[in-house]
Amino acid sequence: MAEEAMENSAGQLEIVHGTSAEEIEKHQVAGSADEKSSWKKFISYVGPGFLVSIAYLDPANLESDLEAGAKYKYELLWVILLACIFALIIQSRAANLGVATGKHLAEHCRTEYPKNLNCILWLLAEVAVIASDIPEVIGSAFALNLLFHIPIWAGVLITGLSTLLLLGLQRYGIRKLELVITILVFAMAACFFGELGHAKPNSIQVLKGMFVPRLKGNGATGLAISLFGALVMPHNLFLHSALVLSRKIPTSVSGINTACRYFFIESAFALFVAFLINVAVVSVSGSVCSMPYISSQDADNCKEMDLLNASFLLKNVLGKWSSKIFAVALLASGQSSTITGTYAAQYVMQGFLNMKMKAWRRNLITRGIAIIPSLAVAIISGSSGAGQLIIICSMILSFELPFVLIPLLKFSSSKIKMGPHENSLIVTISAWLIGAALIIINMYYLSTGFVGWLIHNHLPKVASILIGLVVFPIMLIYVLGILYLVIRVDKEITYIAPKDSLEYKNDVTSIL
Predict the structure, then answer these.
(1) Is the pTM value of this prediction over 0.70?
(2) H helices of 214-358, where?
């Protein structure tokens, strides 16, 4: 008796009696076509996650990674692992928010919060964009210095003008430009992986540093916060929630779930690549700077590690070309990051203020503001001061993260905003626990660092008292602002149930 092909509830092929082998073959061909269709559909969603991941390889990341490896070897690798896991959770939440609601994060903030609070959140978002833009300006200036021996302050000015050129090139195809820049960035990654093979770090110590949290030595907490801030950036959340809207997503529950799953897979792969590159940079810096036969000049570079002198880490692989190739890759890193910064700035202004501005005008304003502190520090303190400014910007991003993270977690966990696509209980608990840990670490570092400075500074007592009277209320407002965002009940209903979700449509109607 011939065999019969039937499909079970899971979509798998079951063989029973009664049908010919030709029908079985037809069913198998159809299954193969479905698999090809799934791959084609997945590729159509690829893009936003990789564009966002460029920001995880910007000059701020490189500066923090190099300093962490030089000062603490592999001890802070656990921060990078935790940051990448956390980034995957919240970036996927940002993508889901845009997919499920058709609005990005800044638009949700505008509709949900009162006008005054919305204005404050907008200003904080603008500061975050500028803080992410400053390392790109300085990193590009360092690259120009390495390539053409241009003074840092002049490189800052030249970098500011490069924005207009970048926007001009976008007219010829932004995807082509992104591809070229991404190739250059990953070429830098290949250099560090090559050096990693030569330096041969102790794998046991690397794994220990990755899975055993430690904060030993002066400045470890501050550097850990800057590492976290360089990886988990507020403007990326606005950006990711908006970029997914460029894809054609079905309006059915199953279509939205499929899109969310594909965006998660893409983000996971992109962040995994970024994680490997960041680990390689830290490991190379840590292993080279701890070598027993390191030269005195290289030892001095390790003590004052920054982007300007980091090219010596690659000389075992690239020889005399290490400085030039590192500079080209650094320039690519800084300029590619301007793309994400430009898009994020546009979405922030459009979302919070419901105001549209031409890209070149918005980018010119943001970069112009970023140039002012970069130029001032470069003139007064030179390259060392500019390098420290990158670390400070990373810490600013980390301190600002709660004011973007809390709205995102609340919106993505709300049924009145997400409907059936709200966060699961496990995801919600995990995200809130990590977010709470970050907020507590930030407040601890802020309070203890400031109190320690007040006690040990050499200013007159009257000046110290006046500074304390100004700063402590600001710290109190910071804490109260976070608590308000946490306990405030969301009111605006933004979820629109698709046609195949009458059950959830009834739920939302009952809420109304």
Answers:
(1) yes
(2) 220-231, 234-243, 253-289, 296-303, 315-318, 322-353
